[in-house]
């Protein structure tokens, strides 16, 4: 009689990966929309099936064994491949239909999405677009782990082994309270007082793009990294606390409305960031992503 081989289920692998991502049984269970006892039982069944301990459980800490760490990475690949089975079917159907998970960085999402979402809903009513706003690092990690299908971000940024569809260039502007700087057509980096420069906190790639464009090493040391969003930065500038950098799409979307803040283009080499859509290489939905990129490109400032 042939020996029966019992294989791990996708659900068990999903529970294991969720526990690794959240480091907590309760939060992992919430992310999988199951009870904590169901998730815990599923992982125990997986351990029994393969005959090894994957997770050391204590009251305060969830710690993966070395083998558990390796199996989690393998599980991520298996789950990603399983997702692509559905992608293959969707790719054979109508363009831009079915579910799609897209991450968008915070310095793009509130300014570009309102322009383009109505068009997507009108022209592609069968597309169910799930949006997640997160920093470039978090978004690229989610893409590589299969949590996200594509990412709308700003280049240059190292996002791993991805395909890229550049959309348009987004110029950088210097924002200041009216009357604090010479209202010329543009502002050179040398005219910026680095001791009054307000920047987004670490994790936002706009900070790196702006500092690289200015090419003044002292700015990195002197600039105050304190803003959590571009809207917060504008409010600080409006209160006379300093100057900041804004992307053109934010200015064009009216971020300065009802303030005493003015903005002029930064006059420097590479004084722009390139907006792009990226996705995993060899994805079966490449046609969909390139079509989505074409639609997004129409929203350029």
From TrEMBL:
GO molecular function annotation: DNA binding; DNA-binding transcription factor activity
Residues annotated as domain HTH lysR-type: 8-65
Keywords: DNA-binding, Transcription, Transcription regulation
SUPFAM superfamilies: Periplasmic binding protein-like II, Winged helix' DNA-binding domain
Cellular-component GO terms for this entry: protein-DNA complex
Cross-referenced Gene3D superfamilies: Periplasmic binding protein-like II (3.40.190.10), Winged helix-like DNA-binding domain superfamily/Winged helix DNA-binding domain (1.10.10.10)
Coiled-coil residues: none
Pfam families with a match to the protein in the record: HTH_1, LysR_substrate
Highest taxon listed in the record's lineage: Bacteria
PROSITE patterns attached to this UniProt entry: HTH_LYSR (PS50931)
The UniProt record lists the keyword Aminoacyl-tRNA synthetase: no
InterPro entries tied to this protein: LysR_HTH_N (IPR000847), LysR_subst-bd (IPR005119), WH-like_DNA-bd_sf (IPR036388), WH_DNA-bd_sf (IPR036390)
PANTHER family (alphabetical): TRANSCRIPTIONAL DUAL REGULATOR HCAR-RELATED, TRANSCRIPTIONAL REGULATOR OF OXIDATIVE STRESS OXYR
Family: Belongs to the LysR transcriptional regulatory family.
Name recorded for this polypeptide: LysR family hydrogen peroxide-inducible transcriptional activator
Source organism: Sphingomonas kyeonggiensis
Source organism phylogeny: Bacteria, Pseudomonadati, Pseudomonadota, Alphaproteobacteria, Sphingomonadales
């Amino acid at each position: 009689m042939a020996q029966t081989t019992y294989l791990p289920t996708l659900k068990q692998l999903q529970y294991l990966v969720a526990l690794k991502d959240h480091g907590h049984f309760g939060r992992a269970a919430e992310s999988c929309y199951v009870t904590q006892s169901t998730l815990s039982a599923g992982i125990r069944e997986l351990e029994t099936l393969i005959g090894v301990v994957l997770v050391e459980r204590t009251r305060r800490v969830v710690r993966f064994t070395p083998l558990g760490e390796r199996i989690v990475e393998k599980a991520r690949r298996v789950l990603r491949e399983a997702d692509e089975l559905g992608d293959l079917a969707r790719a054979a159907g109508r363009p831009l239909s079915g579910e799609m998970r897209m991450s968008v960085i915070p310095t793009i999402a509130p300014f570009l999405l309102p322009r383009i979402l109505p068009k997507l809903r009108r022209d592609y009513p069968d597309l169910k677009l799930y949006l997640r706003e997160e920093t470039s690092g978090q978004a690229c990690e989610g893409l590589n782990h299969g949590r996200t299908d594509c990412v709308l971000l700003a280049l240059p940024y190292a996002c791993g082994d991805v395909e890229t569809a550049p959309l348009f260039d987004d110029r950088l502007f210097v924002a200041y309270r009216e009357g604090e700087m010479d209202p010329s057509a543009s502002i050179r980096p040398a005219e910026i007082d680095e001791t009054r420069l307000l920047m987004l906190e670490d994790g936002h790639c706009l900070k790196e793009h702006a500092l690289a464009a200015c090419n003044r090493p002292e700015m990195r040391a002197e600039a105050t990294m304190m803003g959590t969003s571009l809207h917060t930065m504008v409010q600080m500038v409006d209160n006379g606390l300093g100057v900041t950098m804004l992307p053109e799409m934010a200015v064009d979307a009216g971020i300065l409305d009802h303030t005493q803040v003015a903005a002029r283009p930064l006059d420097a080499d590479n004084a722009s960031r390139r907006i792009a859509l990226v996705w995993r290489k060899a994805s079966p939905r490449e046609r969909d992503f390139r079509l989505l990129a074409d639609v997004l490109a129409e929203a350029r400032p």
